[in-house]
Amino acid sequence: MERGSVFMTNKTQAVRFPKSVRLPDGTTSVDIQRRGRSWVITPSEQSWAAWFDGEGVSDDFMTDREQPADQERAAL
């Protein structure tokens, strides 16, 4: 595990990352999610790409979903 440092700059809290875990070059903003006592920091421009490239859902996802039958509607 790498360890960074937290410091104040101009009344703003900032985090300094070690070189081995730096954010990609060109990153200008991040999305931050709080999970219990942890924070997950993701480059904003990569968050959706990572989601779509992820593992996806299991084969039994929503197999028990109660869905009404399709409705017959007049054409517009």
UniProtKB/TrEMBL annotation:
At the top level, the lineage of the source is Bacteria
InterPro entries, alphabetized: Anti_VapB2-like (IPR047976), VapB_TA_antitoxins (IPR051734)
- State which residue ranges cross the membrane: none
**Which Gene3D superfamilies does the UniProt entry name for this protein?**
2.10.260.10
Q: What is this protein called?
A: Antitoxin VapB
